[in-house]
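Re: duplicated header lines in exported structure tokens

Our pipeline writes sequence and tokens for each protein into one text file. With two proteins the header for the second block appears twice in some exports. Here is an export where it did not happen, for reference. First protein block:
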Amino acid sequence: MQSLIIRFLDHLALSPAVWVRVLATRGSVPRDAGAWMAVFADGTVGTIGGGRLEQDAIAHAKVLLTDPGAARGQSYALGPSLGQCCGGHVSLGFEPVSAQDLARLRQDLQAEHQPVALFGGGHVGHALVQVFAHLPLDVHWIDSRDAPFPASVSANVRCEHSQPVQDAVATLAPGARVLIMSFSHAEDLDIVAACLLRQRARADLPFIGLIGSKTKWATFRQRLEARGFSAQELAHITSPIGLPGLRDKRPEVIAVSVAAQLMALPDGPRP
């Protein structure tokens, strides 16, 4: 998603476009409110779901590129008017934009991103960051080791070396979804404990996920209970993480599974 925004803004710096957004929906539709695409004279960036809806939206946007008086809003009944099997209703907004709108658009688009804190620069962490590059997330990637991070990361990822690693919990963005997968079980335990203390004080970490087996979590639960955490507090931890029933343990598969779990959370990032 971050790369999509960059493509849009880079192209907009050179030529004007019409920014097409899904404003409202009813019933079964290909994309939810907030989905967008940018239509340029020579192509498009993004998608509002494809099919006849997108074809008609592109055609109208190209009219607006040359005729500023054209309508800035359109409503589509997908079944009756477009013959799409979804059958729902979509309202689209069409906004002509140019290089002078870059600062506003960058702020608007970034505001839709949600924070994720990823503790651990191991194989699964690297795979997750590659998946997250395409999602509306701002990723705070943290490790205690000196050089766990790749030479370059996508624009929506910020890397931090923290020693001890759990100290970074205090600096996490409010509302961050936390994923814990460090190289050490001892570090994992300290990070979980720090997250629970922050949750006790501020209640602003809606998801705390710990990688590992049910046996690992059972051991952690006993140790955390010994540190004074209640059963109600421990219920806030999700472990194992990822979609249930998945047996493939390749880092890339785990990463896709965990990303899908985050996207399915209540008030999770808009696809």
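Second protein block, exported in the same file:
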Amino acid sequence: MFEILFLGTSASAPSAKRGLSSQIVAHNEYRFLVDCGEGTQRQILQAGVGFKRLNHILLTHGHLDHILGLGGLLSTFLRWEAIEELNIYAGAATLERVKALVYDVVLRGNRTPMPLNLHEIKPGIVLEAEDFTVSAFPVTHRGPDCLGYVFEEKPKRPFLAEKADALGVPFGPERKQLVAGKEIALADGRRITPDEVLGAWEKGSKLVVVGDTGRTENLLEVCKEADALVIESTYLDADAEMAKQFSHLTAKMGAELAKKAGVKKLILTHLSRRYREKDVIAEAQSIFPNAVVARDFDTYQVKRDE
């Protein structure tokens, strides 16, 4: 299961109720900050989640409404907050702008108290943990090296406790070994194989987070059968030409993508201040009923069975 907390859901400039683009994706002990718009560190504090383990930052692109909060966040890490290391992942063009912000503005010759690692990434796997992966994929927006991210649990076989009980498998490390795919020996000499206590392979949950984009046809495959799709909705269909001009989406375009890709839940964010939230929801739900508009501090759990 993944959990996503929205810290900022406004497009381009903050509004009275919406901060700039940022969200935290959590999975067990891992926490990923996706984008870091101006004011993100205050939103983190306001949400009550704190900075602990927030050492992976994934950037979708280099526009200021998605990266400017890095300056304040890093400044806080320099003076007040203890963090073991900080990893920032981005495409080449985005990373160049981040380097200027970090080294020329924030640090100015000073050193960070923790290792600061700037990772230039390309489409493909960014991070692989024991039970999930984070992958980047290309997105079409204004400028080069724009990316989206897929958070996907690895397939697994459920442990069938009733079968283990019937076979006399004791509670403890023996069951853990079977889950890991290893054969065990019981005290009476019998050998138990994983196939005897594990069910059929099941897909894990899949969360797709798209940053700003002006096209959707190139996202169909990566979004296919996602349990949740997070995507921008800067414009309404009445302003489709303006959306095209600035390489953004309408609520209708996001909903059509979700429908074609067989997505289970659509979460719209990056809303322009020119529209009422209820109009954005109405446009999306007319095409894809299971669509919602994220507000700052909304939290969603992404599970395979929901």
